[in-house]
TrEMBL record:
Species this chain originates from: Puia dinghuensis
Highest taxon of the lineage: Bacteria
Extent of the signal sequence: 1-23
Record keywords, A-Z: Signal
Protein name: Type 1 periplasmic binding fold superfamily protein
Keyword Signal: yes
Keyword Signal: yes
Length: 169
């Protein structure tokens, strides 16, 4: 059974990154990322998805590198996070370890559905960090997995061929 303490971290990250994305999108009229060169894309349930707005942050208090991207309509958001102590390599998604893939679908102006790739609720996934330059604050890699609805209603999102190239702040 999935417990509320585990849910607090991704919901907290979602809230912070959503605010960052909203600020980024309002100040960015040319529809590219926070620095013009960051990207986040994947195939979600067989359909190509690419973030129009991408934001990356180094949360030193949580010791996490987190990145989020939102599509042009801001109806779908993808979040990837991992401990800032990781190096290049392949890692399994696991919220308890701070390795997170979350997909958020905006249902209405006041409601969203959250899908998480975590074994605790039947999800799975991997992230491969191919390049990580802490001094330049740049990270690149790939990811894939199955993210399950956090309400355990049986629905899921299959995320394949994911890639990111992000300069974080």
């Amino acid at each position: 059974m999935y417990t509320k303490p585990i849910l607090k971290l991704p919901l907290f990250l979602s809230a912070i990154l959503f605010c960052c994305l909203m600020a980024c999108s309002k100040s960015n009229n040319n529809n590219n990322s926070n620095n013009g060169s960051s990207s986040l894309k994947a195939t979600v349930d067989g359909t190509s998805w690419q973030a129009t707005y991408v934001y990356g942050v180094d949360s030193t208090s949580a010791h996490l590198i987190a990145m989020a991207g939102s599509d042009n309509n801001q109806t779908n958001t993808l979040l990837i996070a991992f401990p800032d102590t990781l190096g290049t390599g392949t890692y399994s998604m696991n919220i308890a370890a701070g390795i997170i893939m979350e997909y958020v679908v905006k249902v209405s102006s006041s409601s969203s559905t959250i899908y998480i790739a975590d074994p605790a609720i039947g999800g799975s996934g991997t992230i491969t960090i191919t390049s990580y330059n802490k001094s330049a604050k740049q990270v690149q890699g790939t990811f894939s997995g199955v993210a399950k609805n956090v309400t355990n209603d049986g629905t899921s999102k299959t995320i394949a061929s994911g890639s990111f190239s992000v300069t974080y702040h």
